[in-house]
Task: structure prediction
Amino acid sequence: MSENELVLFETRGNVGVLTLNDPKRRNALSEAMIDQLLTRIEEASRRRDLGCLVLTGAGGAFCAGGDVKDMRDRAGYASGGPADIRDAMGAIFQRIPRAFFALDLPVVAAVAGPAIGAGCDIAAMCDIVVAAESASFAESFARLGVLSGDGGAWFLMRSVGYQRTAEMTLTGDAVDARKALAWGLVGSVVAEADLLDEALRLAGRIARNPPRTLRMAKRLLRETYLASMHSSLELAATMQGVAFHTQDHREAVSAMFEKRAPEFKGE
Result:
């Protein structure tokens, strides 16, 4: 493993594991880390043998968000005039929500320790969040006199609703794992020692299903965010036509009648 590997990628059977790997900086997002994260996501997306991804952070933190030193020094994404910063948001940070929204592969976040600012937003971009007791989530941008420029308002509102998103955004206060569970930001809370195993078990339960069907099912859910009921029904019907003609569908039906475990190939 190279010191320059800021995002690690490994596979465990038909589950991929992405690890943000800059623990000295609590996995704060640099341009290099963002580039590597997006490259790894693209690699995983091309892997038709994968049924799910797990995203986690190394060293007891999920992600501390953007580098505040750049804000202090007016460097990197924080340099230049208002138009320059607007362009930098699109060219750097906003590539993350676009990549997660475009990713059809299901993603389970395994969150321990702080998920702050953009780190909180990335957790909300995942399909399901498993949190350790130590996890905390904060839309802390207002405390620094800035806004969430990476899609947090859009993704969080669809997780916890307007009022709770407003409370997190306007106060900047951290939400602990138990409150995040009650609010619907996370799906389950486990002991930190069990976090990755629990996330992998959940990912395995997802990935035991046909890979193509999973990707279409996730796309249907994502597009339904934006669609009317009629548009969602039309998309579902169209995808169903494709699903019925996959080899994995035939295998699933045959295995059920033959009372055996199916063997899916992503075909």
